[in-house]
């Protein structure tokens, strides 16, 4: 727990301290040189002394130092040992002198063990210390302390004294202009005057020298931008020159020459170039326009000035710089930039097909070019020195319009590209066709620029509209017999409706006629009456039935259907027809013609008082009434059949024959036929007389003397006939085969057809 520390070392002394040790009455310190034989030092200290100094030591020597704590009986209580070297020996100054006013040169012999030296200069009461450095003083006493690594100081000092030369003047140099240099300095202590010389640093030219008692002067007529060397010193009253001060100064450059400005219109920037000037290190270009100043700095002979404004005039100057200062600016060069893009462009379609593009004038714009490009790719342009241009335009196009201003600098930047859509084209070739009596179908070809169409029909009871994107429109439920003014308008989102479209007149079909009555004019002629409410209409009446079609035409309110077939049912309707079209048919009215008279009627006398009448079927007839009428009386029958037996017929009488054909609805056709004569009356009182074996005489009583009779004899062996001369009432038949049974009939002679078979018969054997 006992230790010793060293707090100072010199060349011949070591200073120690230790803490108080309990029980110790004294302390003993022994220093033994490590590398030197027989040199040691012993020192004793009381118990109240806690520090000690070992002196008379050898400089630059390592000592082993042992410290012991001893009690009052001489017994060593504790001990410790450390190693310590003494400082180097004190150096001896051989020479000290001053060549410059701000330095002292000191020379001494090296001291063994020293690693550095501390020099101290004293000027009155002030000290300046440095380690192996030169000290700036005037009249000084100085001392030197050697240093070892251990930094042990020795307080035994060696001193000497001397005086320095005049200090050099500290120059302040500037170049106020490109051909002058101004030199100034502060007064130097003890100086009687100053000498200043100036010469080009490259050795060219002559040297300029000035002596003065002032503290400033100016050298003029120098070369611009040239580096000069200035040397100055002060001299004493004895004429002894002091330290000199050397300074290199360049004159400020001359203004650059041949300034050229090249304007880049596309990038709105200018390239400024000039001839390099001697001695210039950098250049500054200034472009001024009003309060706006743009600068660019460069070390080359050109510079780009960016971000120029359009429609502006800039004044461009160049200034050269070096470390001495700046040149005067060059004479300003005027630069007019390209004009700005025209704004507030207005587009008007003063009349269809003509576009007027106008704009306000632009500063520095000498003329303008307007480009108009349609959406089909076609582009036209207009050059003008005015502020408006006229263009031809077509309907349904979108035009993209840009306006450029021009001057000598070039073209303005691209401004707003405006688009203007003209009104869509009108469907000029539309067709309006009446597809029904109250329906008009309007069709047209698509037109350029149209997004929607409106078909408008004006007339009749008002306005009918139809909007659609298709190129067709159907106007329905239109009043009949009306005249409409039809227009097809095209519409676009951008321009709205084209209101200049042409119209067409279309008339609807006539109204349907209303049949009021049908009357019978003749057997096969029917008169049809209707109510007429149309103008310029022709009416066609049609009777339609299984038998076919029958027509009649009139521009009035009635017409007659002729040659209608009998016994037929018809549906009668009427239509009105005009150049506009055809109406719907009227409501049908049923029509039935009277039944047809039978074409063939046959009368056959069955007996002398009964006649059979038969006839062909009459078209449309359901029942028939036949009548045989003579002055002697009438015979009639009503039947559903096509034949009838009429009795009570008087023989040998002429009858008129009539027939009525009656339809189901009661229509009657009276049919008249050729008269009918009943056969002559059969003779009465027929008697037979034999004339031998092979002959017979037949007698009768004639009903009329004018009637001739035939006698017919029929048997199995032959038939025989006898016709007597007119007026006779008997007849002989001879050469009759015998042995047979014969039937004998006497009947009136007829002029047509076979003999009558209904007269009475006689049997003869």
Automatic annotation (TrEMBL):
Record Pfam families: fn3 (PF00041)
Domain Fibronectin type-III, first and last residues per copy: 1-90, 167-254, 255-340, 341-425, 509-596
Q: Which residues cross the membrane?
A: none
InterPro entries registered for this protein in UniProt: FN3_dom, FN3_sf, Ig-like_fold
Q: Which PROSITE patterns match?
A: FN3
Which protein, by its recorded name, is this? FNDC7 protein
């Amino acid at each position: 727990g006992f230790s010793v520390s060293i707090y100072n070392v010199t060349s011949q002394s070591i200073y120690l301290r230790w803490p108080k040790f309990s029980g110790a009455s004294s302390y003993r310190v022994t220093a033994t040189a490590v590398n030197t034989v027989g040199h040691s030092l012993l020192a004793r200290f009381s118990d109240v002394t806690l520090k000690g100094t070992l002196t008379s030591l050898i400089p630059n020597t390592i000592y082993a130092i042992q410290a012991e704590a001893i009690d009052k009986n001489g017994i060593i209580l504790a001990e410790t040992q450390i190693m310590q070297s003494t400082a180097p020996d004190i150096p001896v100054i051989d020479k000290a002198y001053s060549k410059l006013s701000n330095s002292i040169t000191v020379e001494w012999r090296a001291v063994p063990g020293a690693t550095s030296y501390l020099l101290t200069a004293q000027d009155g009461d002030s000290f300046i210390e440095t380690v192996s450095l030169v000290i700036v003083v005037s009249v000084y006493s100085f001392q030197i302390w050697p240093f070892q690594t251990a930094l042990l100081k020795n307080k035994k000092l060696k001193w000497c004294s001397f005086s320095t030369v005049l200090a050099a003047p500290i120059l302040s140099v500037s170049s106020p202009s490109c051909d002058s240099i101004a030199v100034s300095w502060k007064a130097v202590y003890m100086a009687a005057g100053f000498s200043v010389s100036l010469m080009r640093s490259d050795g060219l030219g002559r040297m300029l020298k000035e002596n003065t008692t002032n503290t400033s002067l100016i050298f003029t007529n120098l070369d611009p931008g040239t580096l000069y060397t200035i040397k100055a010193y002060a001299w004493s009253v004895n004429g002894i020159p002091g330290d000199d001060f050397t300074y290199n100064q360049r004159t400020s450059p001359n203004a650059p020459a041949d300034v050229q400005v090249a304007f880049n219109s596309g990038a709105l920037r200018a390239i400024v170039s000039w001839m390099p000037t001697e001695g210039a290190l950098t250049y500054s270009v200034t472009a001024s326009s009003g309060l706006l100043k743009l600068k660019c700095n460069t070390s080359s002979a050109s510079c780009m000035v960016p971000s120029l404004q359009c429609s502006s005039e800039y004044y461009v100057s160049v200034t050269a710089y070096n470390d001495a200062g700046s040149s005067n600016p060059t004479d300003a060069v005027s630069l007019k930039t390209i004009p700005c893009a025209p704004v507030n462009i207005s587009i008007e379609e003063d009349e269809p097909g003509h576009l007027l593009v106008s704009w306000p004038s632009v500063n520095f714009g000498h003329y303008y070019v307007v480009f108009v490009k349609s959406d089909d790719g076609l582009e036209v342009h207009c050059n003008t020195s005015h502020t408006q241009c006229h263009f031809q335009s077509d309907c349904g196009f979108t035009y993209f319009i840009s306006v450029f201003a021009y001057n000598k600098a070039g073209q303005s930047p691209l401004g707003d590209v405006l688009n203007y859509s003209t009104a869509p084209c009108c469907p000029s070739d539309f067709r309006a066709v009446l597809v029904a009596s109250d329906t008009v179908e309007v069709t047209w070809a698509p037109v350029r620029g149209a997004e929607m169409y409106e078909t408008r029909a004006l007339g009749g009871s008002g306005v009918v509209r139809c909007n659609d994107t298709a190129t067709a429109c159907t106007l329905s439920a239109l009043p009949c017999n009306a005249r409409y003014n039809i227009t097809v308008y095209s519409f676009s989102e951008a321009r709205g409706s084209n209101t200049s479209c042409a119209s067409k007149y279309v008339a609807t079909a006539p109204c349907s006629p209303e049949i009021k009555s049908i009357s019978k004019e003749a057997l096969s002629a029917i008169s049809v009456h209707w109510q007429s409410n149309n103008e310029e209409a022709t009416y066609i009446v049609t009777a339609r039935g299984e038998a076919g079609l029958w027509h009649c035409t009139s521009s009035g309110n009635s017409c007659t259907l002729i040659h209608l077939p009998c016994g037929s049912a018809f549906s009668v309707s009427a239509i009105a027809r005009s150049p506009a079209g055809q109406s719907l048919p009227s409501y049908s009215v049923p029509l039935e013609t009277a039944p047809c008279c039978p074409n063939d009627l046959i009368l056959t006398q069955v007996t002398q008082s009964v006649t059979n009448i038969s006839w062909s079927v009459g078209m449309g007839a359901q029942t028939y009434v036949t009548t045989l009428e003579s002055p002697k009386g009438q015979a009639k029958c009503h039947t559903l059949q096509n034949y009838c037996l009429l009795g009570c017929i008087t023989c040998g009488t002429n009858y008129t024959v009539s027939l009525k054909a009656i339809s189901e609805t009661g229509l009657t056709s009276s049919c008249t036929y050729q008269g009918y004569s009943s056969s002559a009356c059969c003779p009465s009182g027929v008697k037979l007389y034999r004339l031998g074996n092979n002959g017979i005489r037949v007698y009768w009583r004639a009903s009329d003397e004018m009637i001739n009779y035939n006698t017919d004899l029929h048997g199995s062996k032959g038939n025989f006939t006898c016709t007597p001369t007119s007026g006779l009432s008997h007849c002989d038949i001879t050469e009759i085969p015998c042995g047979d049974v014969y039937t004998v009939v006497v009947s009136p002679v007829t002029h047509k057809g076979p003999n009558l078979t209904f007269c009475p018969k006689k049997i003869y054997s």
